[in-house]
Design goal:
Blueprint lengths: L11 H28 L10 H18 L2 H10 L6 H34 L5 E2 L3 H7 L13 E4 L4 E3 H8 L31
Antiparallel strand pairs: 1-2, 2-3
Length: 199
């Protein structure tokens, strides 16, 4: 998607077509990758880790989608002016890059943060003792089944590890008392941004 177009000099409608279709195709590729992650069996990819994969894929997609329109815009702005008006094209290109720069830096920081979260394993709590499990009733409050790999959060509530990891892919707080336990769960549920990259 960063390949320069074959023809020289195109109009604003051609530019919009190239940018919108490129963004839409990249968004569909992102959805396809997330679908493949979702279809992976538990033996290949643990269910608890899917949120981290979704986050990295989405942040990588947003970074690439913010880079993709640069080449068509610069080509349009630089090649659209000839002769003495070429200075205007260079000025508009420089203005475009100044406006685009902070967006790219923000997306790169988000992608870097996603990579760090992907590499580090997240431990939301500790393993409870037998007496703590008995005090909790022996059933997970989320799935209403016997505890499977029980995890006790900092607020002392106990859940199945898979249940609580799935919960924290969507929420920040304990399911029982609403004490904040996890960081921002944005993009860990497999969702994709609805915004289009026009510039």
């Amino acid at each position: 998607m960063l390949i320069p177009p074959d023809h020289e000099g195109y109009g604003v409608m051609d530019l919009m077509w190239i940018v919108i279709v490129s963004d839409y195709v990249l968004k569909l590729v992102t959805v396809l990758v997330k679908t493949i992650i979702t279809l992976m069996p538990h033996s290949i990819m643990h269910y608890q880790n899917r949120g981290k994969y979704f986050l990295v894929v989405e942040m990588g997609s947003q970074l690439y989608r913010s880079l993709a329109p640069i080449q068509p815009w610069l080509s349009y702005l630089l090649d659209g002016y000839a002769g003495p008006r070429k200075v205007l094209g260079v000025f508009l290109s420089a203005t475009y890059m100044v406006c685009k720069g902070p967006d790219i830096v923000t997306k790169m920081k988000c992608f870097q943060s996603a990579i760090v979260k992907f590499i580090h394993s997240v431990n939301y709590g500790s393993t409870p003792s037998k007496s703590q499990l008995e005090d909790a009733g022996g059933l997970c409050p989320i799935c209403h089944d016997d505890f499977l790999l029980p995890t006790m959060l900092s607020c002392k509530h106990i859940f199945c590890e898979q249940c609580v990891v799935t919960w924290f892919d969507r929420e920040r707080t304990c399911p029982m008392c609403r004490t904040q336990v996890a960081d921002d769960p944005a993009w860990r549920d497999g969702s994709t941004t609805h915004f289009m990259q026009l510039y």
